[in-house]
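Whiteboard transcription, Tuesday session. T.W. wrote the structure tokens on the left side:
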């Protein structure tokens, strides 16, 4: 499922108020490297465009270099914003994790 839940980080939300943030997309480890992540991002971008928005962004934890590489390969670049607001995410098994 692809849906918009707003910007996660307060700093990003303030600096890029018109940008729709793609977040909380996950691919189970056994399916990585098969284009699934790229397809999820493409679906999210299509949804964003269909809603009349011209800009999308992603946020990625420093602890997730694989996702950062994917986003970079898909054309996303760094804004230089480093946000340490706490957020909660659920892994593929539904276990909640809190990070900053």
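and on the right, the sequence the group agreed on:
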């Amino acid at each position: 499922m692809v849906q918009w839940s707003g910007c996660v980080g307060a700093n990003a939300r303030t600096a890029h108020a018109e940008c729709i943030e793609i977040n909380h997309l996950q691919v189970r480890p056994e399916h990585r490297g098969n284009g699934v992540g790229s397809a999820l991002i493409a679906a999210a971008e299509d949804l964003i465009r269909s809603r009349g928005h011209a800009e999308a962004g992603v946020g990625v934890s420093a602890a997730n270099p694989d996702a950062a590489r994917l986003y970079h390969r898909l054309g996303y670049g760094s804004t230089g914003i480093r946000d340490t607001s706490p957020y909660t995410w659920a892994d593929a098994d539904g276990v909640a994790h809190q990070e900053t």
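Someone added at the bottom: The longest helix spans residues 36-50.
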